[in-house]
Amino acid sequence: MNTRWLERASATLGISGFGFFIFSVVAMALGPVVMLRKVPMQTVEQISQNVIPDFYDLLVRYPDEFKKYFGDPGDPPDEAKMRQYFAEALRLGRKVYIAEGCWHCHSQFVRPLADEQLRFGPTSWAAEHQNELQLPPLFGTRRVGPDLIREAGVRSNDWHAAHFYDPQAVVPDSVMPRFTWFFEERKVPYENGVKIVPNQRGLAIITYVQWLGSWVRPPAEGVPLTASAAEDYR
Questions:
Q1: How far is the C-alpha of 33 from the C-alpha of 31, rounded, in Å?
Q2: Where are the domains of the chain?
Q3: Would you list the DSSP string of 95-143?
Q4: What percent of the chain has pLDDT over 70?
Q5: 3 state SS for 4-33
Q6: Mean pLDDT of 2-6
Q7: Any idea what the Cα angle at residue 148 is, between residues 98 and 183, rounded to 5°?
Q8: Phi/psi zone of residue 124: left (φ > 0), alpha (ψ -120 to 50 degrees), beta?
């Protein structure tokens, strides 16, 4: 009789445990959908209506590569085409950012901790993540490098290109690896006949990083986050 009671108890606990496991999986899957379905989220198409100046700068600095990988916007650039190319670059840039594991070392969320705010500025707020390209949020894990949620306009396209190609040449104490596969060689009549330029992935990830934080307004000041303001946050 004691044996039967133990068997029944074990079976009950086993079934209950499995049931709670299934419930937790379903709750974690559906919970965010239910909670966020009424929260306004900008789509990539809406985001791309405001093309950042750095994207136009990439067209000027790397016209051949820009036209090769995104298309020819004309001269002067057609705004509709630039918005289309900008959306394509943002989508690809986020995919590259995730695929290359950039989010391991660079978070996009400033924690509510004193040291965090001293290093990266005010704690992240909801408006910084209410868009399609911030879902799911990239909280980061190792967080070896700086938080990038407000990187927009802090540094130039040239700086980011050099940093991706050879981080230690720009930041000597950096532990970031080189991402040489973001670049290709182009034959030119100078510089020993070869120039290193960003390829499609290089242009896309530079665009994505330069976009991060360009859409937010600090809740206290109510003004756009400019390059100088972002620099003050660092």
A1: 5
A2: 1-38, 42-233
A3: HHHHHTTHHHHS-S---SSHHHHHHH-SPP-GGGG-BGGGSS----SS-
A4: 90
A5: HHHHHHHHHHHHHHHHHHHHHHHHHHHHHH
A6: 72
A7: 55
A8: beta
Give dist(CA 80, CA 95) in Å, integer: 23
Residue 146 phi/psi, 5° resolution? -70, 155
Say which residues have a Cβ less than 8 Å from residue 47's Cβ, sequence separation at least 6: 87, 90, 131, 132, 133, 211, 215
Q: Is the predicted pLDDT of residue 222 greater than 50, yes or no?
A: no
Give CA–CA dist 117/110, Å, rounded. Answer: 7
The structure's pTM equals 0.79
Cα separation, 131 vs 137, whole angstroms: 10
Contacts 24+ apart (CB under 8 A), 163-167: 164/198, 164/202, 164/205, 164/206, 165/196
Assign a CATH topology to domain 42-233: Cytochrome Bc1 Complex; Chain D, domain 2 (1.10.760)
Whole-angstrom Cα distance, residue 10 to residue 185?
66
- pLDDT band for position 148 (cuts 50, 70, 90): very high
